[in-house]
């Protein structure tokens, strides 16, 4: 089926070449990082994780969100998701690939990565994250590819895929829970030491991932003859709305506990992020942008009559996605490191090389996504041709 | 760098000789030479069930007293000086009471002198180390004698230990440390970019019967000893004076104790 990605319009190839160019720049910058070390990033002794780990965390959520389509379609027989569920599964594939690449980009000695498997350490959450992420990648590749292949031949997917699909449901929850445990079990980082971390991760994932999927589905419809279905898109819009409210609610819980308890260690990271601490305010504009976008998206999403208009729905989804990208892909990680272990403030901002490498990874993700979606579109367009 | 190459050639040479000449040549060489020194401990080695320090900063009177302890450590361990806080690597350093004990006993009305007094900070060699718990490769591990060790050859540089350590004791080699070492100590390995390092309680010195370098240079301000031995000097000080540990509420059980207020207040 992959050969279908080799035939495309001029616009398709321009997009592919653009992505390859960004990837090329990213790779060259990565070589520089390999050579000179992570000193070329904005990371420091005090803020030792930054943009890479933030993007990784955010994208685990995007990957996990495929389950929001799998559950209604496969467990509740919600037929309207029939055409779109594959888009969710392939989005998960591309997101997990980006996750793995971001982890590699963040590693000081990436050539030693096999040490994680050579010296398996079940007590370490990273070990489990490697296991569940790779497992999830494999599950979605197999499920997506097999169901699409069956679809192309106009037959039912083979029976052995069903158990894998059911397995992918708890597995999706596991990848984001384990990722939350990376942070939520660390003593001394008050911002992360919260039992609702995993719940918040799942809520934001189930809002942000499907929001991206709506945008992608609208693009697919615009640029191809394959229509993922208006009702399906609206149904996802409903999921996004509920999940985003849950996410904002959980964030509110964090604020309550920190500020009503009045414990300085718990309040400091929130103060740093939203009003600044000891005169350090680098992240404040960004965090307020995130908050405002969250409110805008919720206002637009909450009224069914408003979100029915696809233009508004798209705008709301872009706002929501950007809001969560800032909040989870950046603020959540940096907030954990500020103030530092001595109650001092060392700020962080990504450098240009760090941003280039980050863009490069995103471009790889989009390339994988484009190729996979191209195959889907080609198969689906063939389907309609047959039907006519 | 040259020392590594030389050591490598030495080992390669010995292996070749062993390979060519077999047992006869081995007997001809110093009996059990290379391998035996690694397997059987030096009889002079200092041993303990749980190593720890008691730091009494009232005995550190001047800036130079602090610096002597810091230099003693950093010089023999080839700790680079990058000259900026971002890429900084440090095994032992000084900071104020406020920063050393941010959650413990700080108050706005406390003795100003004590509040601004400098303390010596280093790895706490915790009994329940969070860094060891999170390390995905066991590159950091706790030895039987309580020392929390770091294997710089196994470390993948994920920096999880840095996120997990509540004491900011760990440094990452963001840049190549080798050009930034002032005078290289050929007896101790240098590091490469991309690995985490920290205080190792001078495992290489106590194995030879020597006290940790900082303790030796401290004029008695740093006492090291076995925390499990009630008769050790460290335990006697802890039993008789008011001591605190950093962030005890986190349950990591630090093995570094600080005497507060000095002898006259004890």
Explain how this protein is built.
The complex is a heterodimer of chains A (388) and B (266). Chain A has 388 residues and is mainly alpha-helical. Chain A has a single domain, classed as Formate dehydrogenase/DMSO reductase fold. Helices cover 74% and strands 0% of the residues of chain A. Chain A has helices at 10-36, 51-64, 67-75, 85-106, 115-118, 125-153, 161-184, 197-223, 230-261, 264-274, 284-302, 304-307, 310-337, 352-387. Chain A starts with 9 loop residues before the first helix and ends with a helix. The mean pLDDT of chain A is 93. With 266 residues, chain B is α+β, with helices and mostly antiparallel strands. Chain B is globular, with a radius of gyration of 20 Å. In chain B, the strands form 4 sheets. Chain B has a 4-stranded mixed beta sheet with strand order 8-1-10-9. Chain B has a two-stranded antiparallel sheet with strand order 2-3. The chains are: A mainly alpha (388), B alpha+beta (266). At the A-B interface, helix 5 and helix 6 of A face helix 4, helix 6, helix 7 and strand 6 of B.
């Amino acid at each position: 089926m992959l050969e279908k990605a080799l035939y495309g319009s001029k616009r398709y190839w321009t997009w592919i070449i653009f992505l390859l160019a960004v990837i090329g720049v990213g790779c060259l910058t990565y070589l520089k990082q390999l050579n000179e070390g992570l000193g070329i990033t904005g990371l420091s002794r005090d803020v030792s994780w930054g943009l890479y780990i933030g993007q990784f965390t955010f994208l685990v959520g995007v990957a996990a969100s495929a389950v929001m389509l799998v559950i209604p379609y496969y467990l509740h027989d919600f037929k309207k998701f029939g055409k779109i569920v594959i888009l969710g599964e392939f989005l998960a594939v591309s997101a997990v690939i980006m996750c793995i690449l971001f982890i590699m980009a963040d590693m000081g000695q990436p050539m030693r990565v096999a040490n994680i498997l050579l010296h398996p350490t079940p007590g370490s959450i990273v070990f489990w994250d490697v296991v569940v992420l790779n497992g999830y990648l494999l599950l979605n590749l197999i499920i997506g590819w097999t169901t699409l292949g069956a679809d192309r031949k106009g037959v039912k997917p083979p029976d052995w895929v069903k158990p894998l699909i059911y397995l992918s449901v708890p597995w999706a929850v596991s990848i984001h829970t384990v990722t939350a445990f990376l942070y939520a079990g660390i003593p001394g980082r008050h911002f992360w030491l919260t039992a609702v971390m995993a719940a918040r991760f799942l809520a934001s994932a189930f809002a942000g991932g499907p929001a991206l999927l709506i945008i992608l589905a609208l693009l697919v419809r615009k640029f191809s003859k394959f229509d993922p279905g208006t009702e399906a898109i609206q149904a996802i819009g409903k999921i996004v709305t509920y999940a985003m409210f849950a996410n904002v609610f959980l964030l509110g819980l964090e604020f309550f506990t920190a500020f009503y308890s009045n414990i300085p260690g718990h309040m400091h990271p929130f103060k740093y992020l939203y009003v600044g601490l000891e005169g350090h305010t680098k992240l404040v504009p960004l965090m307020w942008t995130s908050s405002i976008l969250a409110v805008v998206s919720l206002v637009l999403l909450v009224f069914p009559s408003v979100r029915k208009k696809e233009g508004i729905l798209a705008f709301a989804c872009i706002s929501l996605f950007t809001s969560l990208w800032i909040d989870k892909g950046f603020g959540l990680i940096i907030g954990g490191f500020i103030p530092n272990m001595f109650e001092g403030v060392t700020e962080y901002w990504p450098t240009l090389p760090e941003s280039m490498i980050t863009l490069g990874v995103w471009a790889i993700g989009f390339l994988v996504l484009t190729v996979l979606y191209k195959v889907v579109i080609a198969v689906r367009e063939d389907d309609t041709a047959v039907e006519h | 760098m040259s020392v590594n190459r030389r050591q490598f050639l030495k080992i390669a040479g010995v292996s070749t000789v062993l390979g060519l000449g077999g047992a006869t040549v081995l007997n001809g060489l110093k009996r059990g030479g290379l391998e035996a020194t690694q397997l059987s401990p030096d009889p002079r080695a200092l041993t303990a069930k749980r190593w720890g320090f008691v730091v009494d900063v009232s005995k550190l009177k001047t800036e130079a007293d602090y610096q002597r302890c810091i230099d003693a450590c950093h010089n023999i361990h080839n700790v680079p000086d990058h000259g900026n806080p971002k890429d900084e690597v440090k095994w032992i350093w000084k900071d104020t009471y406020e920063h050393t004990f941010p959650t413990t006993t700080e108050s706005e009305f406390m003795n100003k002198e004590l509040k601004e007094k400098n303390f010596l900070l280093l790895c706490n060699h915790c009994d329940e180390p969070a860094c060891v718990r999170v390390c995905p490769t066991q590159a950091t591990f706790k030895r039987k004698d309580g020392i929390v060790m770091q294997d710089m050859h196994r470390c993948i540089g994920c920096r999880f230990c840095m996120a997990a350590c509540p004491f900011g004791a760990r440094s990452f080699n963001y840049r190549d440390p080798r050009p930034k070492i002032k005078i290289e100590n050929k007896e101790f390995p240098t590091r490469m970019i991309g690995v985490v390092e920290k205080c190792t309680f001078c495992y290489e010195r106590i194995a030879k019967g020597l006290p940790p370098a900082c303790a030796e240079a401290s004029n008695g301000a740093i006492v090291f000893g076995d925390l499990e031995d009630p008769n050790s000097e460290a335990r006697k000080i802890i039993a008789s004076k008011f001591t605190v540990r950093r962030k005890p509420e986190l349950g990591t059980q630090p093995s570094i104790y600080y005497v507060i207020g000095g002898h006259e207040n004890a």
